[in-house]
Amino acid sequence: MTLFSLLTPQDLLLALGVAFLAGWVKGIVGFAMPMVMVSGLSVFLPPELAIAGLILPTLVTNVFQALGQGVSAAVSSIREFRIFLIVGLVFLLAGAKLVTLVPTSTFLLMIGVPVTFFALIQVLGVKLVLKEPSARVEVLIGAVAGFVGGMSGIWGPPTVAYLTALNTPKAVQMRVQGVIYGLGAIALMVAHMGSGILRADTAPFSAALIAPAVIGMWVGMQLQSRIDQALFRKVTLVVLLVAGLNLLRRGLMG
Predict the structure, then answer these.
(1) Backbone conformation region of residue 80, classed left if phi is above 0, alpha if psi is from -120 to 50, else beta
(2) Which of 34, 67, 96, 226 is deepest in the core (most CB within 10 A)?
């Protein structure tokens, strides 16, 4: 079988477990699947295969998350955050084109420092909030998220930081994250079909991880539905802090 020409049965079982864990985390806080999957899969698989593995589960789970409250609600989110999405897409394409010219570590540090700072001071009790959406801030965050996403495939932390600063209601934040990440996942899939990472022999591996990721996400969402707004914010900030520290680690250590 094609799968077993790329990895052993034991590696496949481990990969299924990583996909379940990534889905579980995403079900609770609405993001972090790519970071969990890349970090976990890269322990025992080549980096390119790890990236290939996350593409389809990320796409499918984000579609479920975006449409969880209905198509009309998803369309409403697209309209509400259209500036973020448009700017993010433009800069994602720009970042993807520059990926061979600028060290990825530079951009990981550029996003890791502010994300870690934002999450840390809020975890310590210092609140940074936006009383209402700001077009200027939305353009800035969208540009950073898109550009770094094009370079590294990671655009979640700046998005979460912006939504958290707005104190976005839990249900709305989960839906908006799904919409933003879903559109980003489509762009990522197309980009890696072009790069050769997602191809005939790696796509089956990625497809095999869809089911455990979806099951893990469902389990996480059952827990998330029992968490109130204040606790949801705390859990999100802790995950964001861990994500920021991981970005710093990758930027400094490669």
Answers:
(1) alpha
(2) 34
Interacting residues of 149 by C-beta distance below 8 A, sequence separation 6+? 88, 92, 95, 155, 184, 188
Q: How many CB atoms lie within 10 A of CB 104?
A: 18
How far apart (Å, rounded) are the C-alpha atoms in residues 225 and 180? Answer: 21
Structure-block tokens of residue 48: 């390119």
DSSP string, 157-193: HHHHHHHHHTT--HHHHHHHHHHHHHHHHHHHHHHHH
Least confident of 13-22, 87-96, 113-122, 197-206: 113-122
pLDDT in tens, 91-134: 877 776 775 576 767 766 776 777 787 778 777 876 667 777 77
H/E element holding 43?
none
Integer Cα distance of 1 and 86 in angstroms: 42
Q: Which of 200, 184, 186, 228 is nearest to 31 (CA)?
A: 184
Whole-prediction pTM value? 0.75
